[in-house]
Every structure is written in C-alpha cells, then in structure tokens.
Amino acid sequence: MKPELTFSRFEKSCETYPNNIAIIFLGEKFSYRKLHGMVNRFATGLAGLGLKKGDRVILYLSNCVQFVISFLAAQRLGLVVVLVSPIYTSHELEYMVNDSGARAIVCHDTNYGYVKEVFDKTSLEKIIYTNLIDMVSITKRTVAYLFDKTPHGTVKGGNETMSFKTLLKNPANPPEVSIDPVQDLSYILYTGGTTGFPKGVPGNHWGHTSYVNDITDWLTVGHLQHGKDVYIAINPLFHIMALGLFMAVGLNVGATTVLMPVPQVDAILMEIERRKVRWMLGVPALYRMILENDRQDTYDISSLKYCFCGGDVLPREVLHRWKQRANVPIYQVYGSTEAGHVSYSPLGAGDPAPMSIGFPLPSRKPLIIDPETVMPVPVGQVGELMVTSEHSIKEYLNKASETTASFVKIGSEIFYRTNDFVRGSDTGEIFYVERSADILKHKGYRVSASEVEAVLQDHPVVVGACVIGVPDKKVGERIKAIVVLKDDAKGVGAAELINWCSSQLASYKVPSYIEFRDMLPKSKVGKLLRREIREEEKRRVEKDKK
User: Fold this and answer.
1) What is the DSSP letter of 136?
2) Do 63 and 140 lie in a common domain?
3) Domains in the chain, number
4) Tell me, what CATH number does 222's domain have?
5) Cα–Cα distance for residue pair 277/271, rounded to 1 Å
6) Computed from CA positions of residues 390, 396, 399, 403, in that sequence, does the dihedral angle turn out positive or negative?
7) Same domain for 212 and 338?
C-alpha cells in the first residue's frame, strides 16, 4: 500500500468531478470546485497568521461546512488538527489546549466565551470564530435571524480574534508545503484516560488514509457509485468513525454528502427523502430515535441501501425493526481512536450475524489474547481484542505510563489493547462479548469512568467515587456515580454533585444518578473494584425486572 496524504484523494475528486455537489448544508450546495477554492483561501489565511507545518490547530466546531474547510485547509498546510467536541467546557478545553500545545483555535461564536476564558492560561495565540450559518446565503441568514432560528454568541476580542469569513477573503494560493505521510502528524484526538485525564492520540496521514482507502477500495467495491452517490453525515465529524466514513464514501469518490448540524430526526428523514440518500452512519440511539418517531412513516426512505452502525452494541430488536422499516440491514463498524477503523460487516452478504463486528480491514491485524498472560486464545474462546497496523502511530501524547499499559509488543509488532472482549471464528469474523468496566457507552460516546471519578473527587467533600454504567435501551448506558463523602460533610446532595460535574464535563459525561455510600470495595493493593460494583448493579436491575 502506497502512503498517501489525508487530502490527496479529495484533490483528485476536485479535479475529476469539479461540478459535482460535494456538500449540502442547511440546503446550501457547495460544488467540489467551490469547496476546493474555499479550502485554499482559508489555508492562505492560516499561513498568513504565521501558522506553519507541525503547528496544532484546534477545531472546536459542530458539523458544518466550516469544519470541513478548516480540516482540509490544515491538512493542506501540514498543520496538526486537534479535534474536540464543541460542547466541552472550559475545564476540558484548557487541558487539551495545553496538552497539545495548540497555537490557534477555530470555534463557534456560541462557544467563544469558553475559549476567551482559558486564552490567557494556555498556549493559544489566535482565535477564529464563526456562526453556524455563516456559509449559507444571505437570504437564509436573514430569515434565520428574523425568526430567531440560529443561536448567536457574543464575541469581544482583540487582535487575537478574527472571523472565519475574514480569512476566506484571502487569495487561493497557499504556500507549497512538503508533507511526509508517514512521519508527519495529521491529527490529535482525545479519548478517556485511566488516570482521570484524557489521552491525546496522535495520528499520521498514512495511518488515517490506510483505513479510509480500505473502505473505498476494498469494502465498497461494487456498491459505491463514484461521482453519483449520496451520503448523509449525522454523527459528529470530530469522531474517528464519522470522519473516516465521510472521507471514504464522500470526498474520496466525488459523492455528495448531506451534512447535518444536529441529529434532529424529522430533518434527517426529510433530507434522506429529498436527496435520495443511499449511505448512512448512525449509533444505536439514533436508529432507535428514528424508529420511535411518530412521523417516521410519512417519509420515503426507500433510497437507503447501506446503513452502518458503530459506537456501541446494536440491540437485535433495533436491527429487526430497521429491516422491517427500511428493508435493508444495518452493517456494523468497529474501531477505536487509537486503532482507527478496524472491522466492518461485508456488504451484500445478507444480515450481519448477532453481535458480529465484522471482518478486519486489510490494513488492520487483530489478535485475541488472554488479558492475564497476553497469549493468544484458541479460536472460539473469549479474549481481549488487540489490534495493530504497520501504518499507525503507537503511543499517546505526553503519556508514557499509559502508552506502556495500552501498547504491548508481541514478537516484532506493537499491538493496541482495546479493552473489549471478543471471540473469533474460523472464517476470521469477530464477535463482540463485552467491554472493560472502565469504559462506558452513552449515546454512542465512549466515556472514561476514571475521568468522571476524578472530577467528582475534586469536589471538596468527596473522598471516593466509583462510576458505572446502568443499562438503558434508549441510550446504551446511563452514568451512575457511587460517592463517599467526608465524615463532616453537611448539606451536599446529588443535585450539587451533578451541577459540579456539569460545570467541568461535557453533558454526555455527566452522571444521571448519584448514590451515597460509606465505603467502596477495593483490592488488597487499594485498586477500586469497579467491575464488582457493576456486577452488583446488574443483579439489582435483574431483580427489579422480576
């Protein structure tokens, strides 16, 4: 496999299909020619700010055209994109800015206040802000303003602050930059850490394009219509799963992507019907939301042919109901921030088997091991899934001890420990069993129990905390915290601790329930026995069902 740069196939699409529509956002259409020009003008603007190859730029944006332009412009210049959720608080943002060493940030005007709050405490030098609908026509912006349809934030900055549209006024002639797809970083993504702090996962261009190109060149052959297809991007592009599929079946092949800013069910179904969408990615909660929508039967979604699901286990009843509604199966995607996309259900092979996460992509090599001995288990037995790829980086940013714990050398190769337990078959298909007790899944998001525990334990009266997931068919798991308070604590209840978490964590990480106890179970060496509490909660739920 030849090393490629992240934006190389996008540029080929622009040359081959200049008049094709690349993006439809809030009804506004952007051709490949127009998008390419905007990317180059924005890249010129970034270079004019003094940003150079290797500099970190944070994208603090939801799904919008500005995200796509910023991401591709940064790749064009050899900048390292740091992708973070636009709903992160200033507490989370400050840590990630300083950990990554970011010099610039692109944000919405609605989260500009968080950026300004941490600016003087971080490595940031430049703030680029935009409103969600800045790129749509003046007519649509006027209507949205008159009917108060789009949130606006207050921006009061100095010389460090400039608007996104100002940078787009530059000429489309960014400097030529020599980028090595193997040695140079493309992005940094953050994932939950076992020490309570998120871990930065650096990715090079080859590591990213290896699995993206696997999808385009291997998985979708005979199914993907180059230059003609339509994909709807609902999941947030700051996640590796959504970003990878967007590039693979959208920008890589001259297809049209309908870009959704928020997962609003009626708007999604309307766009599928209107644009004749054939490709879709969701999480189990999204498919359930659609199926439970009172108006879903009024929309024609018969154009859908290839529906993917990732981020969590797909309940069998959702799979069956979707097959009845859309007359197509849901194919499974499995991957992680550290390993990229790992496995897919084969297309055109009928309904995926229950709990199957598919077959490994050619660029990914799986190994199923006994977690205690780190030795391979016999085919059919349950073990921890490990993954390697010759193309990817195998370390965390600034986290030597966590790198040692998660990346293990076996023979001449270094494997990533996924903390997911699976079993393999004679055919190479992988079946999911369960995940580590340290990782929770809420609405498709991976939530580190340790990170939430660390925030709780920062509260002045909390001496211990254990965070677990309570099964919930609508959202996967709801987050529950078991808390031990100081002996002299008075007047502190669940509401105060939930508000404390809300002030420092993104909303999807905040516990739904707080339970107070006198002590927490720990091992002889003082390690929290989270799995024991999780099993206790499971027994309680089963008892309540009876």
Assistant:
1) S
2) yes
3) 3
4) 3.40.50.12780
5) 8
6) negative
7) no
pTM equals 0.87
Domain boundary among 208, 231, 262: 262
Judge contact between 158 and 182, C-beta under 8 A. Answer: no
**Alpha carbons 335 and 207: distance in angstroms, whole number:** 13
Distance (Å, whole) CA 140 – CA 88: 28
Cα–Cα dist 60/126, whole Å: 13
Q: To 5 degrees, how large is the angle CA 427–CA 428–CA 433?
A: 115
Cβ pair 293, 265 in contact under 8 A:
yes
Looking at the structure, tell me whether residues 184 and 62 fall in a common domain: yes
Encode pLDDT of 131-163 as tens digits. 999 999 888 888 777 667 778 899 988 999 999
Q: Considering only CA atoms, give the Rg of the chain.
A: 23
How far apart, in whole angstroms, are the C-alpha atoms of residue 233 and residue 312? Answer: 18
461 & 529 share domain: yes
pLDDT tens sequence across 40-54: 999 999 999 999 999
- 431, 453: one domain: no
> How far is residue 168 from each of residues 34, 56, 134, measured CA to CA in Å?
12, 20, 11
Same domain, 202 and 80: yes
State whether 459 and 536 are in the same domain: yes
* Averaged pLDDT score across all residues of the chain: 92
The DSSP output letter for 296 is G
3-state per-residue secondary structure call for 147-187? CCCCCCCCCCCCCCEEEHHHHCCCCCCCCCCCCCCCCCEEE
